[in-house]
Write a structure and sequence with these properties.
Chains A, B: It comes from Brevibacterium iodinum ATCC 49514. Chains A, B: It is an enzyme of class 1 (oxidoreductase). The structure is a homodimer. The first copy, chain A, is of the alpha/beta class. In chain A, about 40% of the residues lie in helices and about 20% in strands. In chain A, strands 2-1-3-12-11-4-5-10-8-9 form a ten-stranded mixed sheet, sandwiched between helices. In chain A, helix 1 crosses helix 9 and helix 10 packs across helix 11. Bound molecules: 3-isopropylmalic acid (2 copies). One 3-isopropylmalic acid sits at the interface of chains B and A.
Chain lengths: ~350, ~350
C-alpha cells in the first residue's frame, strides 16, 4: 500500500514539530510490519515564501494537493506578515477549498499530565468544529475606512448543507462513543444562525434516537469547561466558537503542546489535513524547545484516517507512555520525537 | 440627595437576588450617614408578563426609563419563551436603546474564594466589553429557511464610533490602574472588524502613552485565562468575545455567583444599568438557594457610578469579609443578604 502525503511545515515551530510527527509515524509503520509505503511531497508555504514571491498558496497548488491521500501540516502565521494574510492564504484556503467540513479536535487529559485545574476529573471528549463557514468566510467589508464614520461588517455565513455535514458527523461519533452530544451556540442572541443550527440538530437527531442531546450557550460552556469538563462526550459547534472552545479545552487538558486535530473532508472528495491546533509560536521558534507531541498525535489521527488503525494506536500508546513518565527534564523537540519513536520498539 | 432607581428583577433567580442587592445597598446608605434617599420604581418584565400580554419591554417604558438615575436589573430568559425573545426584547433592548457603550465586568479572586484553578495566583482585572454592536445587533437573516438550501447570515456590525467609546474607556481605566491594556479579537480571521479594532486601539492609544498595549487572539486569551490570569489588568474586546471571556473569567474567580457588571452609558445621556452577569437560572429558581453576591456587588458598582464612593467601598468590604468567612454552611439567598448587611454595622 502506498500513501501519498503532502507535507507542509509552514512557519515557526511548524518546521520543528512536523519532522518529529513524521519520524514517529514512519517508525510506527515500520514496526507494525504492514506493507505500507509513504510517499512524501514537500510544499513550501509561509512567511519566507510570501516575502520572496508575494505568494501564499496558489490555485495550482491547491489543485495539486487533491492528488494526495492526506496533508500533514505544521502551522502558519508570522509577525512580519500582515495579520491574516498567511492564515487565510494558506490554512483557511485549504480548509475551504478542500471542503474540510469537520475540524475534529479530541480533548483528553492523559495520565501524568498536569492540568491547570485543581480537580480536572476525567476529561475525554471530542469537539466537532464546523470548518468551512461561519465567521471564517471573510464576508463583509468596511466603508468610510479609517474615518470616524467607519462601519465594518463581518458576516457569518451558515448553510444547512454545511451545518448538517458537521452535525451528522458529530452524531455518528457520539453514537460510537458515550451517546452524549452537546451542541453549543449562542442562539439567544445570534438568532438567525443559532436557529438554523438548532433546527439541523433536531432534524439529524431523529436519525440517532439513542444519542442524548443537550444545548449550551457558548459562554456557559466555557464555565463548565473549567468546572466540570467530565460532562462532555461530543461537542458540536460552529467555526468561531469551536476555535475558542478547543483552545480552552487544550489548556485544561495540559496545554496546546498536546492538542492534535484533523480537518476532515467527510465526503472523501479531497484529502483531509492533519495539524497541531497550536500556531507557529514565533516567540519560541528555532530553538528546538517546542513540544512536538501535538504533531505526533496529529500523525496518529492521519494514520487512523488512512485506515492504519494499528499504527494509530501504537503512536497513541507510545505518546501516553512518554507523557506518563515526563518528569520535568528539559528535552529538545527532536529528543521528544526520538523518545516516543524509541518506545514503538 | 435623591436618586431615582428603576428596579427590574426579571425572571427566575433575578427575583431572589435583586431584593438582596437592594437590601444591602439601602443599609450601606443608612450606615454611611450620607443624606441620600433612594426612590425605587418597579418595572415588571419577563416570562410571566410576556405570556400574559405578549410584551417584553415597550418603547414607552424604554422612554420612561430615561428619567431614572440608574437601572438595577436581575436577569431574564425562561425556557417557556422562545430563545432570544426576552433576552433581545428586554436586556439587549435597554443596552442598545440607552447606549450602554461599555459593559464593565470586574474579575477579582477574593480571599477565601476557591477557584477551580490549582494555582490561580492574584486575579484582579476588568473587562471592558463593547456593549452596543458586534454580533449582537440582530442583523442578518435566513433564506430558504428550513430547506436543505437554507442560508442564514449573522452580521457583526462594528463602527469606529462604537469601538472608540469602549476603547477610550478601557484606556482611561488602564491609566488609572496598572497601565496595561490587552485588546482581544480574532483579527487574523475576522479581518474587517478586527482591523477596525486595531486601528482604533492604535489611534486612541496615542493619547495614553503610559499605557502598555498588547494584542491577543480570543482563542489564545482563553488559554491564558486558565494558565496565567495574573497577566491581565484591563481587557477590551467586542460584544461577543466579551460575553464569552467574562463568563470564563467569572468561572476562574470562583463562579458566576459572584460576578457583577455595569452597562454604562459613558456619555451620560441615559441611565446606566447594573446587573449580575449570571442569568435567570430557571433550574434553581424559587428555592432561595441562589447566591445574591453578584447582585450585591452590582449594587456597589451602581453606588460608585452615582458618586457614592463610601457606600460602594463599604459594600465591597462587607462582601469581602463575608466571602473570607464562608465555610460551606448552606445559607438561603436572604440569609446571605442579611449577613452582608449586618456586617455594615
Ligand atoms: C491560524 C488560525 C486561522 C486558526 C483558526 O482560527 O482556525 C487556528 O487558531 C486554529 O484553531 O486552527
Ligand atoms: C442574556 C444574554 C443576552 C446576555 C449576553 O449575551 O450579553 C448574558 O449572557 C450576559 O452576558 O449578560
Amino acid at each position: 500500500m502506498k500513501f501519498s502525503i503532502a507535507v507542509m511545515p509552514g512557519d515557526g515551530i511548524g518546521n520543528e514539530v512536523v519532522p518529529e510527527g513524521l519520524k514517529v509515524l514512519k517508525r510506527a509503520i515500520e514496526v507494525s510490519g504492514e506493507p505500507v509505503e509513504l510517499e512524501l511531497t514537500d510544499y513550501k508555504v509561509g512567511a519566507q515564501r510570501y516575502h520572496e514571491t508575494g505568494e501564499t498558496l496558489t490555485d495550482e497548488e491547491l489543485e495539486s494537493l487533491r492528488k494526495h491521500d492526506a496533508i500533514f501540516f505544521g502551522a502558519c502565521g508570522d509577525p512580519s506578515v500582515p495579520s491574516g494574510v498567511l492564515e487565510r492564504g494558506v490554512i483557511l484556503k485549504m480548509r475551504f477549498g478542500l471542503g474540510h467540513a469537520v475540524n475534529l479536535r479530541p480533548s483528553k487529559l492523559f495520565a501524568g499530565v498536569t492540568s491547570p485545574l485543581a480537580e480536572p476529573g476525567k476529561i475525554d471528549f471530542v469537539v466537532v468544529r464546523e470548518g468551512t463557514e461561519g465567521s471564517y468566510t471573510g464576508s463583509g467589508g468596511s466603508v468610510r475606512t479609517d474615518t470616524p464614520q467607519e462601519v465594518a461588517t463581518e458576516v457569518s455565513v451558515n448553510t444547512w448543507y454545511g451545518v448538517e455535514r458537521a452535525v451528522r458527523d458529530a452524531f455518528a461519533r457520539a453514537q460510537a462513543r458515550n451517546k452524549k452530544l452537546t451542541y453549543v451556540h449562542k442562539h439567544n442572541v445570534m438568532v438567525h444562525a443559532g436557529h438554523l443550527w438548532r433546527r439541523v440538530v433536531e432534524k439529524v437527531g431523529q436519525e440517532f434516537p439513542e444519542v442524548a442531546v443537550n444545548y449550551e450557550h457558548t459562554d456557559a460552556c466555557t464555565i463548565y469547561m473549567v468546572t466540570n469538563p467530565e460532562r462532555y462526550d461530543v461537542i458540536v459547534t460552529d467555526n468561531l466558537f469551536g476555535d475558542i472552545l478547543t483552545d480552552l479545552a487544550a489548556a485544561v487538558t495540559g496545554g496546546i503542546g498536546l492538542a492534535a486535530s484533523g480537518n476532515l473532508n467527510v465526503e472523501g472528495t479531497a484529502p483531509s489535513l492533519f495539524e497541531p491546533i497550536h500556531g507557529s509560536a514565533p516567540d519560541i521558534a528555532g530553538q528546538q524547545i517546542a513540544d512536538p507531541t501535538a504533531s505526533i498525535l496529529s500523525g496518529a489521527l492521519m494514520a487512523s484516517h488512512l485506515g492504519l488503525e494499528t499504527v494509530a494506536k501504537a503512536i497513541e500508546t507510545a505518546v501516553e507512555a512518554d507523557l506518563a513518565e515526563r518528569d520535568g527534564t528539559k528535552r529538545s523537540t527532536a529528543e521528544v520525537g526520538d523518545a516516543i519513536a524509541a518506545r514503538l520498539g
